[in-house]
Design brief:
The radius of gyration is 12 Å and the shape is elongated. Strand 1 (2-9) and strand 2 (14-20) form a beta hairpin. The chain has one domain. The protein contains one helix and four strands. It is mainly beta and 73 residues long. A four-stranded antiparallel sheet has the order 2-1-3-4, with no helix packed on it.
């Protein structure tokens, strides 16, 4: 699975990253999957800042997952 993570912090800082995620570690249940993907949010700079994180699934073994987006924050 390949995901995009966009991070937006309350101080105006923004960043974006692409992560490769082992499909074998991604739970089949959608809620559990999003909980697992949460660990890919952030870029290590905003520990004391409010933030909004958005993950988009770019590639997945299950084609129905491609394009799904979840926002955290």
């Amino acid at each position: 699975m390949k995901i995009s993570c966009e991070n937006t912090y309350s101080n105006g800082r923004q960043s974006a990253m692409i992560h490769e995620v082992d499909d074998d570690t991604v739970p089949a249940d959608l809620d559990d999957m999003w909980d697992e993907l949460w660990c890919y949010t952030g870029d290590g700079t905003g520990e004391s800042l409010d933030a909004i994180y958005e993950i988009t699934i770019l590639e997945a073994a299950d084609p129905k997952l491609v394009g799904l987006t979840r926002q955290y924050g």
